[in-house]
Every structure is written in structure tokens, then in C-alpha cells.
Amino acid sequence: MAIYPICNFLFCTYFLVISLLIFSPSATQEAEQRRTFIIHVQHDAKPSIFPTHKHWYESSLRSLSTVTVSVNAASPDSGDASRVIHSYDNVFHGFSAKLSASEAQKLESLSGILAVIPEQVRQVHTTRSPEFLGLKTGDNAGLLKESDFGSDLVIGVIDTGIWPERESFNDRDLGPPPAKWKGECVAGENFPASLCNRKLIGARYFCSGYEATNGKMNETNEFRSPRDSDGHGTHTASIAAGRYVFPASTLGYARGVAAGMAPKARLAAYKVCWNAGCYDSDILAAFDAAVADGVDVISLSVGGVVVPYYLDAIAIGAFGAFDAGVFVSASAGNGGPGGLTVTNVAPVYGGPALAHDKLYPLIYAGSEGSDGYSSSLCLEGSLDPNAVRGKIVLCDRGINSRAAKGEVVKKAGGIGMILANGVFDGEGLVADCHVLPATAVGATSGDEIRRYIQSAMKSKSPPVATIIFRGTRLHVAPAPVVASFSARGPNPETPEILKPDLIAPGLNILAAWPDNVGPSGIPSDKRRTEFNILSGTSMACPHVSGLAALLKAAHPEWSPAAIRSALMTTAYSHDTRGETMIDESTGNSSTVMDYGAGHVHPQKAIDPGLVYDLNSYDYIDFLCNSNYTTKNIQVVTRKAADCSGAKRAGHVGNLNYPTLTAVFQQYGKHKLSTHFIRTVTNVGSPESVYTVKIHPPSGAVVTVEPERLAFRRVGQKLNFLVRVQAEAVKLSPGSSVVKSGSIVWSDGKHFVTSPVVVTMQQPL
Asked: Nearest-CA neighbor of 547 among 321, 290, 262?
């Protein structure tokens, strides 16, 4: 799981009056297909004739169909405003609308228009985890006790909505909403406002962007309301802040007590994801509303697009939320185990090993049907019922969903399924609620089963198998492991900033589930359950969101950057064996590109000793050093940046981040070096002395000046300099090698750890 690279949003004042001169479109232009754009404007450039910014936006769009119209002269109260999809006032200033490419180009060239950004379509990134994280009730409850279980903190969940009737969202023994709360419960289809309570204190839905692209939604399978018709949002909301519920299970499995990270925190649901995806214009509207409503944390398990920050609607929304003091947590994606993508298994054996249970004929789907590739993947309509009926079918993973493969096998008459990982999936396994008896095996076991089937067929001894369900297993070791699907680094946009930031529990997580969706998520699945088991960085994200709420409750004075620092500098990278966590996809040790700073450790994060804090100007310097233009910087910060002089004297890696990453390009140089300047703030004992211990990356020399930091009060800030030197290594053109180490500041009680990463790259 990775916290989205968050930056800040500044209020700025511009006293300008502009005229938008839009020319009449030609027949060719009128024929151009329109798509949604997000238009970022200078807030104070609004002509005084317009009473509101929205009037200004509507008038400028009406003028697109007139000849050389001055916005100053247009009547603010006339015309049709249907082309304005959303108007934004908090995380940034502007609006979204459908434009042709030529209209967008003309609009962007006008004074007062900072950016015209094409909309992207995102996708959602699809419990005993509190106990695993050390969050226990009782007299020694630690973070839970000190934060009062997150009481009076508000977590805004931007997702697919919520099923409010679930017991995870009951409001027993909770007081009224926090006095600062300004949100509301927006009624809609099958969702009266009375469904909100003292736990679920707000609910909104945003579908204008979705409908602008896809037309009016089909209300036979979607709710025009905050009600969840998918399950993802209900699941993530209960992970972040679900109440204690007992008994909880999925169809009898994983039985126990279900609870979110911050059980007494309040929830606000912002529905932005629909059947066709999650649209940027709606996501920004949710960010805008959440900040205005007064949330403390935003949890966003949505993503899928890597673009420069000034073109990234989520990054822009996160900047704005950050500046308002809101912590933003976002999932890194499920594109692993490949780089730059930022379970309980019953083994199957051939023969009599499981003879005490009934054995069934076993076939490999890839050997049946006219199209071996389609049938191997158990795609819709690919299996021959005459070959499959009454048998257990081995299917390969890929293309369609894991649960959909089970439905295909069931439709063809199969009685069970073995789902085998491909070589790129490795050995990572995910539990699913299939529509028939099924199990999953890793790539190695899948190969063994195929060989067994082939060998048995040659010997004219029909292959057989059975599936034994051994129930829920606890305290499985080693743990934790890095899930094979978890997206990996390096950071494709800024490799000098280590991503992911953190990892958190995201595999086989039990959490609340709506009553109108079967646990497999397949329409034909009519089973109903109050809880379901899902996996993904979508599940890891709300764990961090809930923990952030607990830390904010325990330390109200901490900024979002301080909370992130506390989580990162106290994270760990070892498992129950005391060794580096295993990469589930390979079975080998994982690396910093897999886990970032490490796995969250909530009980240590509450008292980190020192934090790496950040403010608005730190991010402006970062964008300057990223070679962004002043206009690009203004898009994300709303401030006219000065990138001359001292601001450009540094480099991207000097952002006061809790990690240090050196990227060296070997342009024929033998020795390479760089430096980092960092500032730490004392949040521990008033008088404390920290000394540094250096664990350099292999082949690198790391020095720290000074080696001792003496603090005299809480809140005091001290600087230090880190120098990293490395010698060139032999690499083929276009290749790279990554080595990692760390620096640890300690006063004997606290251990403030920052990864140090050295990447050597050989240019093409």
C-alpha cells in the first residue's frame, strides 16, 4: 500500500479582469467529439459583472457557440448551463465541462486559464488485521486508548458508496457529530437521509461526470444515491472505521470479531465510482466537498493513471486537501509484481494421497475446446460441457476475473475448480468466494498438476483430484509477506522519491459487505453475507487511513506530513523469522521497491520521537527542482512560484521526505556523489540527544553531519546533511541496479529510521 504523493494547495490573489474571446466553431469543429475536461482558473480573475464563479463559467461555455463574445459583456443570468458538470471551490478553483479538442485548445490559450486537463477514468484497486497490527483493547490498549479509538475524527471514504444498514456502521454509545462538521446526508434512490446516524455522519454521491460521458445511468443495476451497488466502498469504509461486530464471518469462514482501525471514528461516504469506472471530474468534486465538510482523513482506493502532477486530478485534489490539514491515503495499485507498477490453500495431489475423501476426474481446461488459449483461461463459452461435466477443472489465471472462471466451469457442468497462477503471478495466492468448490495454487504447483494430468493420460490412468477445505488458519508464518499483486517501485514520475511509502494488510481481509451483491461479485451469485473477504491495495489503503485518524486524535497538532513521517520512520521490514519480508511472487526476499519504508507499526508510530515535517513552500521548491514551469506549479499550488536563485540551488531529492533516494546516471563517470538536506522536528522528550547509526547501501559511502542532534524542547527543529558517494558499476545499456541501506537516529528509546536507496543507471 502506498500513500499517494500528496502536496499542498495555496490560496492566492490575482486582481485581473479578462475577456474570453471564443470564435464560432466551424462545421468540422461541431462534428468533433466532445469529452470532459477539467478547467483550472485563476480564482480572482472573475469579472465583477458575475455574482458567482459558476455564472462566469457558464457564460464562458455559452460563448463557445457565439462569435467573438466578451465574457465581460455577457449577461450572467441568461442561457443554458448544462455544459458545466461540476464547479470546484476548495481544493482548487475551476470547473469541468465537455469540450471538443479545438475548444479546449482555445480555452487554454486565454488569460486567466491555468490549465485544461483531459479527464481520466480510474478503477477501484480490487478481520483480524487490528490484532495483527497490535491494536488491542484492554488496559494496555496503547494507540487505541490514547486516541479514544478515533472518536470525533472524521474519515471521508471516496469510493463506490456505502450500505448503511450494516452492523459495522451502528452508532451505539457515540455522541453527536463533531461541532466542526458541516456535511450532510444527501438523500437518493433507496437512501433516505435518515439512514445516516452518529457513526455515518455524511453521505454524498457524484455522477455528473460519469453521465456526461456515458449518458444517463441504468437505474435498474445502479443506485442514484450514496448506496453501494458494488461492495467495494462498504468494505473499505468498514476497514477504516468499522465498529466491533461479533460474530463475523464469510459463509462460516474467518469467524471472529470484525473491527476497523478506528472503531469510534466517524465516517462520511462520497460515492464517485460507478459501473463504468470512477471519473476525475466526480473525484475532484468529492475532494472539494470532503474538505468543505470538515473531514480529517481522506481514504481513496482508486487509481490507475500515471501522469505529471499538474495533469493528475487526484494529485491536485490531494494538494488541496493537504493544505487544508487533511491527511490523504491512496492505494498504490494491484499491478505487481512487475516494477514501475507502483492464504489458505488446500494443496492438490494426484493419486491416492487424499484417498480418504472422494476423488473426482481432473482435466486441464487448456486441453479441451477448439481454442486452447481461451479454454485454458476458462473464458466465457470456451469450455465443452461434454468434456467438463462432473469433473474438477484446472484453469489458468488471467484475462477474466478469478470468480468469473469458476462461474464458467459451473455453467459447463464442472463440480470444482483449481485456479493456477501464471509465471508472472508467482506463488501469491488470494482467497475468493467462488460459486463452486475451488482452490488456488501457485505457478509451481500449477506446473506440477499439468504434468500429472499429462502423465496420467499417457499411462491411461485417468487423473483424479479432490479439494479439502481445512478451515481458517491463524498465526501463519512467516508473516507479513509482500503480496504478489502489490504495485512496486520505482516511482515512475519522480524516481528520487521512494514509492511505495508503506505497506499494510491487504490480503484476504474480512470486512462489511452490502446485501444486494453476492460474495463472488458475480450477478448470478444469489448468496448473501454481511461480511466478505477481499484482497488488494484497496484494502491496505483504509488500514492506513484509520491509523492516520488514530494518530490525529492522539496528536491533534500534527500535520498530515508529520503523521506520514511517524508511520514511515517506525515501519519495519522484517517478518516473524526476524528476516527481510518475503516477496510472495518469487519466494525471495523483498526490497525497498516492494515495501518502501516498511510495514506499518501503529504502536510505535504514536511516539516516533522525531518527524520529517513539510509545508507549502517545501512542495513549491520540489516542483521547481522538478523543472516544472511556473504555470504548471500554479496549477497544483495556486501560487505564482519564483524558481530562480536559491529555490533552484537544490535538487528534487531535497524534499524533506522520510526517505533518501539517490539516482545516478553513469555517463562515463567513475565516481558519483550527491547530498541531501533534512530537517527533523522533536515530538518526543523535551530534552533529548539523538545520535546517528549508518547502514550504507552495498558499494556506497554514506556520511551524516552532524552525527549528534541535541534538542532542548518539543517542537524544536534541527537540520542535518547526508552525503552519498558511489562508484560506477558495470551495466548493460538501459539497465539499472538498486541497493538500499538506512540511517537511524536514536536517543536510546526511539529509533527514527530512514531508508537510503542508491540506484545506478546506465543510459542507452
From this structure: 262
